[in-house]
Every structure is written in C-alpha cells, then in structure tokens.
Amino acid sequence: MVDLMDKAREIRVEIIKMLAKAESGHTAGPLGIADFFVCLYFGGLINFRKENPYWEERDRVVLSCGHYAPVWYATLALAGFFPIEELKTLRKLGSRLQGHPVRQESYSEKDEKQLPGVENTGGPLGQGLSVGVGMALAAKIDKKKWKVVCVCSDAEQQEGQTWEAYQCAAKYGLGNLTFVVDRNEIQISGNLGEVMPIEPLKDKLTAFGLRVFEIDGNNTREIIEVFEKGKLYPDQPKAIIIKTIAGKGVSFMEGNFHWHGKVPTKVEAEMALQELK
Amino acid sequence: MNLLNYLDKVEQKSTREGFGEAMSVLGKNNKNVVVVTADLGESMKVDDFEKLYINRFVQVGVAEQNMMGIAAGLALSGKIPFAVSYAVFNPGRNWDQLRVSVCYTNANVKIIGGHSGVVTGPDGATHQALEDIAITRVLPNMMVVVPCDFEQAKKATFMIAAHKGPVYLRLTRPRTACFTSPTAPFELGKAQVLRSGKDVTIFACGSLVYEAILAAEELKGETDVEVVNVHTIKPIDEETIIRSAQKTGKIITLEDHQINGGLGSAVAEVLGEKYPTKMIRMGMRDSFGESGEPNELLAKYGLNKEGVIKTIRKIIND
Q1: Structure letter (DSSP) for residue A174
Q2: Does the predicted model carry a pTM greater than 0.95?
C-alpha cells in the first residue's frame, strides 16, 4: 500500500523543481491539489494501465484548468507513464510537457510527441468540462463501464461554458461523470470572492442537477471516501467541491494569490524544498 | 463525363437538405456517427436522423460552446461527431472551443454551419454568416468545404465523414439550383472546371457557382468564360488555380462571404506568391447584410448573374 501523504509530498517536490527550472508557470493551484491527484492515481480511484496509456477501457481524467499541468505531469511521471527525468523539460522548446496540456490525435499507429496519459487539451477555462461530458456520453452510448473525472478550478465557475456543461450532464443523467471543483479561493488577479464571487456554489451545482459533495481536499481519507459515496448515485453526475489550501505545503505560498501565476526563484525553491522534506 | 444537368430544367433544393439526406444514410452505415445540435435539428435537416438514431443524437439546447466541446470529447472516444448549428454560432460563437478542443487536438469533429451568406435572407444580418470561411481556414488541421448545390452537399457529407480530422462544411438555407448531376465525380481538395474558357476565369464557391455558369452562358460568343467550382477552400487546389490563371490571365472570384478572408483571399494568396494575375474579388465588400429575399439581396450586392456579367466586362475591357 502506497503511503498517500508521502507520495503527495513527492509530487509537491517535483512541482517545485520543475517550475523553478521552467522559470514560468503556475505554482499555488498544483501544490494545493496534489493530495487529490495522488488519490486518483495511487489511491485506486481510477483504472489505468501506464504501459498502455490509451487502453480503451481506462477511466478518463480530464484537466479542464490546464494551468494545473505541473501537478498532472508530476503525478503521471511518478505513476510511471513517462520518465521522471522528463519533468525537467517543462515549457522548454521541443518538450512533450507543454505549458498547458495537449492531447493530439495523430491517426497513425504511434505518436512520439504525445505525452502519455494526457487526455485533453486544456487552457481556455471551461472547455474541459464539455469535453468530459462528450466522453461520458460516448461511454453511455456504447454502454461502457469506464468513467470520467473532470478537474476544474473554482475561478473556472465564472465561465459560462461551465454551466452549459453541467446542465447537459444532468439532462443525460451521466452517472459516469464526476466534476471536481478545486475551491482554493484564489485566482490570478486576487481573492476569488473579491474578483467575482461564486457562492453559494453548492446550492448552484445542486440546482443544476448534480449530486454535490463538499470535502477537505487536502485530506486523502475524505477524498477516497467521497468517491465511494458517489457510487450510490449511478444515474446522476457528481460534483465534488474540494476545499484546498492554495500553495499547500510551502508556508510562504499558502493561501496567497500572488503565487497563482508565478514560480519560485532558485532561493525560494530551496526554501520550499527544505519545508517539503 | 456529364457534370451538369440541363441548365434550363434544374430542380430547386437546398444544400442543407442534401446534408440531411446524407446524414440519414450515414447514420445507418456508420454506427460511430453522432449528431450534436444546439436547438436547430429541424432547421438543419437532421430531424430524420434524430428519429432514426435517437441514442446517437445529442440535443444540448442553445449552448454552442458546450456543443463544440462535447463533440471533441465524443471524437476523442472514437465517435465521428457532427456538430450542427447555424454558421454565425458554429463556428461563430464557439470559435475558441473549435480552436483548442477541436483543431489543436486534431479531433475528428465535423462542424456543420448552416444559414451562411446573405442568401439566408429575411432573418437579417445577425443570422447571415459572412465571415465563417475566414475564421475556419486560418486554423491548423482544418479542412473547409463549401458545396455548390444539393447533390454536392450530399457527396461532401459522405466524404467528410470518411476524412480523419476536423472539417468545416458550409451550408445554405434557401432552395437553389441543383445543377450538378448525381453521377458527377467529387473529390475533396480538387477544384472542378465546370466550364472551360480562355478569356477569363471565375473561381466561385457555394450556390453562386450557378450564377457564374449562367453569366458565362449568356456571354457566349462575346467572351469565353472558364468557371471553376472551388468547393474546397482549404486545402486550396493550387494546381488547378494556377493552371487556369496561366490560361486566361484574368481572374474573378465569387462568393457569398466577405471578400476579406474567404475564397477571394485564398485564391489571391496562391496567385500572389506563385503567379500574379489581374484579379477582381466579388463578395460582400466589408459590409453586413440586411433583411430581404435572397434574390433581392444578391441583386443589391451585385452577386447575381447580372453582377457577374458586369464584372466580366469590366475585367475584359479594363
């Protein structure tokens, strides 16, 4: 059994290292949601085959808030989808680790440019939710057992497309689809409640027809449990609001919106890594 | 090969009807074909598809951005989704989703834009897509197809379903001349010389190809007009365009679209780089349309047979 807390710590270490090396990117969101990603890939919440990343029966993880790419990349690397060494190439010319995640259909047997495990192209907020709905619909049409987990941010709830996706997921009773909303309270220009309030989020999501759960997103036990609870509603799409601390694990980043879209300097990275050890 | 029906006895049918008929056949032949629409199934003639294959018909309501994203998700799961709505919304309103979720992803989505051009008529400028060719053809991985009539729309629908990758298919509302024969060959990316001539070439797309043919017929004995149907705007058939320009040395482009960014621009780009040729672009001259009947609007904006004849005389006598 993997020690999930320890694995989450490893992911955070990789996030700091890769962002410091890249010298640009987003830090707070990825650090905050690391506990959730560790549960997905190491806590048995999804089916996947690292040696056959696009195995047809796999569960799909869609990252709608594409700027969270570092946490996805670090988790996929630690889960064995590609060499951990490759994390160093984040945002560099020729890298498979683009600034925001890219999925590209090649229509040929093998595609060397595709970063294994990435399921969607994400960046412009709101888009991944619809892509997730489309995938879940495909599984429903074919009566397949695989499911879709779509990760989005709280500021993403400000996008209109997000709500278009929710109403459609509810209409089609997509019980195979779980939206995960990272409620970390920050966005690039400030605290979410000041930039554009989204509360009462739980009531809104419920009104849109979703089965909503609210948990501590930095608590792996709660994350594992909520997925079990979700299974009780096979004909309804789920939304899990995970309350996380932006920048979690690094004291001088925690809860501070300034770390949304900036990366640590070499010295700051050293300090962060000290804390994470 | 007989490409054209007798010009004086053509039936009147719309390209959207051709698309709808093809979709009903496609739905039967290919279980992966899925229709996603944003409240415009009946108008876009996929109501039969809905009745026949209800479990592969996704109705998202008035939410075009979501429609495009859903289509991308379906495509990434092995489906061949047709995202169906009016062109002003699709690809107009959902262009960002088209750019990232579909084109950058190279997802196998077919974008069907109806009610294009001023021929949309009484609904007015809000519903007359005049920029759709421009905004789709700038996107990498994208193919852009503009069928000239009912028969060609049918053929194009089958062909784009078989093509792997994103395609934009531009359709129109009114019944227009169905002048190509059901047996005429059709190949994506290959422009068709419908009428051979030596004095001037008209490169046209959509229902206006017929106006070009009528103009050419009327000028018989006065000017020998070549008419080329450029049904695929991207990838553009450079070879056929250059060959015709070399032959006639005078070019007119004709489209129910802004002259900026559409067929005229695409042809000008080819010739500007490879064979600079005297040229006039016919289309909407940086203006919006307005309410009216299709024939009234084409006359007002000089895009009917008479307008084409006038332009031919202008380029010949200049």
Answers
A1: -
A2: yes
